[in-house]
Structures are given as C-alpha cells and as structure tokens.
Amino acid sequence: NFPSTDTGKKKIDLELFCFGRIMETDEVKKIIKNKEYRFATIQELLNLAVSFPSIQQQWSIVALGSIWISRKGFAGCGCIDGYAKKRRVDSNWLAGWWRSDYHFAVIKIKR
C-alpha cells in the first residue's frame, strides 16, 4: 500500500506533535501546514520505531504522509502503537476523529 522510491540513508529531524484534545484529520492537517512541517511517511515512522523501539509503547503515532485509498474508497494511513511488551504496525481510517493521546510524526520543511 505504501510504495517507496527512497534508497540509502538520510538524516531527518522527526518530531512528534500531540494536541491533547480530540481532533478531526482536516484540523490536524491545517495546523501542521501552518507550522511549516510536513507529515512523516510510513517509511520514516518505521525508521523511528527501529531506532526507538519503546516509543510506540508510550503512544500511538500516526504517519499522515502516507495515505492510501482502499478498494471501497476509504482513506487510511499508517500508525505504530503497542502495549505491555508488544509492538505493532497498524492502519487507521481517516474518517472521523483522532483521540487526544494520538501523536503525529512530522518533519520540519527546510527552506
């Protein structure tokens, strides 16, 4: 669902944004765009999970930079989360809202 043409290594400054309140996807997108960030891709999010394996056991972290449309027309994105000693990669539908404890992986746009 998330093809990539990236090869090799590159340094990125990935940050996590948590708004502490329930929000809809469009609202999250507008706030991030106004802050001159872009959303991390699923590949960048998975690199975070490899580099910091316990981070996803603290929070659910979303990669809105990788969106796909299902065969039925629903939009989804990648997410990492976990509990106890388990970790997982999952997908979330973009319809509706995000819980107040969700974190969004973002990368500062260099100008």
Please give a structural write-up.
There is one protein chain. The protein is built from three helices and eight strands. With 111 residues, the protein is an alpha+beta fold. The longest helix is centred in the N-terminal third of the chain and has 10 residues.
Blueprint (SSEs and pairs):
Layout: E1 14-17, E2 23-24, H1 25-34, E3 37-39, H2 42-51, H3 55-58, E4 61-69, E5 75-83, E6 86-93, E7 97-98, E8 103-108
Parallel strand pairs: 4-8
Antiparallel strand pairs: 1-8, 2-7, 3-8, 4-5, 5-6
- Number of extended strands: 8
Indicate the structural class. alpha+beta
Tally the helices: 3
How much is the radius of gyration in Å?
A: 14 Å
Helix content: 10-25%
On the 0 to 100 scale, the average pLDDT is 87
Major sheet size, sense and barrel closure: 6 strands, mixed
In angstroms, what separates the terminal alpha carbons? 30 Å
Shape: globular
Q: What is the element string, with H for helices and E for strands?
A: EEHEHHEEEEE
Which strand-content bin applies to the residues?
35-45%
Low-confidence stretches: none
